[in-house]
Amino acid sequence: MAPLKVGDKFPSGIEFAYAPITDPSPTACGMMTTFSCDTEFANKRVVLVSVPGAFTPTCQANHLPPYLSSASALAAKGVDLICVIATNDAWVMAAWGKANGVPPESESNVRMLSDSKSEFGKRFGWSLGERNNRFAMVVEKDGTVSYAECEEKPGVVTVSGAEAVMAKL
């Protein structure tokens, strides 16, 4: 299937595995559950960010931290939810969030989600074999994609970074 593009409707039925961050302790694990985009994205402006892997060099140093430090600025521009997906399992995503200071979900608009088999990335042509490529999209409250960009070179964060997304809001 072709990658999602500006003007497309975000597809229904998309789900990710999710272990909610309920406690900042790295030894406390939430119960894994299903994150339904149909439910969680409803009437929300969402930034969906994909990275190849939790704790990997570029993702850890240059991709996730700017989104976390820009969470308030993104909220001020009308973003209700920032969802970060990678091909790691839900507990690794939660641990990565905790290691980077993502607060419990009751205090945060950031969700660390698992696309463990790269199903979303493969379905929309944005995968790197068994991992998702590095991309970002904005889904508006009506479900319309208003921004969708994928990096062309590995290890580079330009069009999928927080700064690029903020410039388009």
UniProtKB/TrEMBL annotation:
Entry-linked SUPFAM superfamilies: Thioredoxin-like
MF term (GO), any: thioredoxin peroxidase activity
InterPro entries: PRX5-like, Redoxin, Thioredoxin-like_sf, Thioredoxin_domain
Domain Thioredoxin: residue ranges: 4-169
Coiled-coil boundaries: none
Cited Gene3D superfamilies: Glutaredoxin
Any one of the GO BP annotations: cellular response to oxidative stress
UniProt keyword Oxidoreductase, yes or no: yes
Family (UniProt): Belongs to the peroxiredoxin family. Prx5 subfamily.
Stretch forming the signal peptide: none
Protein name per the record: Putative peroxisomal membrane protein
Summary of the function given for this chain in its UniProt record: Thiol-specific peroxidase that catalyzes the reduction of hydrogen peroxide and organic hydroperoxides to water and alcohols, respectively. Plays a role in cell protection against oxidative stress by detoxifying peroxides.
Domain of life: Eukaryota
Annotated Gene Ontology cellular component terms: mitochondrion; peroxisome
CDD domains xref list: PRX5_like (cd03013)
Keywords, in A-Z order: Antioxidant, Oxidoreductase, Peroxidase, Redox-active center
